[in-house]
Amino acid sequence: MLLLLSISIFLTSCKNNIKSVEKETYLMGTIVQLKVYGRNAEKAAEESLNRISDIESKMSINIETSEISKLNAKAGISGEKLSQDTYSVIKKAIEYSKLTEGALDATIEPIVKLWGIGSDTERVPSKSEIDEKLKLVGYNDIVLDDKNSMVKLRRTSQAIDLGAIAKGYTADEVRQILVKNKISSALINLGGNVYAMGNKLDGTKWNIGVQNPLSTRGEYLGTLSVTNKSIVTSGNYERYFIVDGKRYHHIFDPKTGYPSEKGIISATIVSDNSIDGDALSTSTYVMGLEKGLKLVESIKGVEAIFITVDKKIYVTTGLKDSFKLTDKEFTYEKGR
Ligand code: ADP
Ligand code: MG
Questions:
Q1: Distance, CA 163 to ligand 1 centroid (Å)?
Q2: How many angstroms does the Cα of residue 318 sit away from the middle of ligand 1?
Q3: Which residues contact residue 6 at a Cβ distance below 8 angstroms, ignoring those fewer than 6 apart?
């Protein structure tokens, strides 16, 4: 961590009198990249990084003093008073739990910890261990107190993990900081959770690569051409381990306690707000193709690209002009 922090890259340059700042650092368990263009670029980027650290310190499950860690430690005993940031993200997660029939469930933490994917304790647990932890999963046990912005978990050993939604919230907060600093062109990338603000400096749209989920080298299978949009992908290639040729990844089905295997291997959501994209990319991944497409098509202003295990790509109608498939290995399923 320290090592990664110390290789943070700061680049500043000036072209046609427009300041351009690029920053790359490690925060929220991922690589954060900011490209900011405009007179206040340096200040805006600096403020953005501070804000990302601030949100991480409140919501990280890996920081003992975070609001989430404190809330989890008090599960079944008492509630924790939270900042507006954390409180609103928990509320949003519950909203999406309801909308997705529990495909997104922030109380998944006991399952996440049991599998330990990406940590040095990762392993395939036994069915009985999984069933035991699964009893603790259930967003209905999150008790909200709006007036005091307090949250309590009803039962002992229950715990919240905001990993599926916190980066989306953060991208939206960074965007607001940039707007406040009168920035009109920027690219925010929080480990694949992307927000493309305005256009590129030359006035053309941003081109965002959609990763080939089967490539081990992070190659793109296509590009999305966008202005003022959030693009968030949940994929089985982000964090996983392989045992006996089988891949176990980090997106869990809250109904089974196993990594979700509903045919989707990558779910990309294009939306105005990144918190919606983050919540929906994780939840549609868990819901599977049919339900995922139906859900996305029912929400105005939200579009999706789903890639299935049989190398087919399903793109919602609103993206037909902006998504370009470049990898011939995949087949384009039109008219969905
Ligand atoms: P990434 O972290 O790779 O951007 P996601 O946004 O899809 O991907 O979030 C995955 C993380 O969310 C997991 O690492 C875990 O902490 C948590 N998580 C996994 N499955 C679920 C789920 N069904 N509901 C809520 N959170 C989940
Ligand atoms: Mg997500």
A1: 5
A2: 26
A3: none
